[in-house]
User: What shape does this take?
Amino acid sequence: MALTDFTITAADVGRVLGVPDGYLVNLAMIQGPVNETPSFDGKQKLTSSYFVLRGSRDWCDLVCVSPVYGGGYAEWRGSTGNMVVSGGIRYSGDLAVVAVPRGTQWSLTLSDILM
Assistant: This one.
């Protein structure tokens, strides 16, 4: 079992994280939130305002949350905005950073096996 920690900012949009076919085991917003108007690409996928991660072989986003309003299954706890992830959320393929709101910083931990 290997855990890999990342710190993600808007500069990482388009980056592929180096743990293919793994599990998201922890996610925390460590700087923010910033209220930003959402924008979309030609396929109606969010490109700003939300924090978005997507596996290259997944049919939907792994994570798509607003640092201001939350979203989806995200449950935020504590003043740093820790997201509760129980055991791990599976993704398929390479995990890519699709969108990060301006001025926010995120900490995430990936695992190569289910914890």
Observations:
- The longest strand covers residues 23-31.
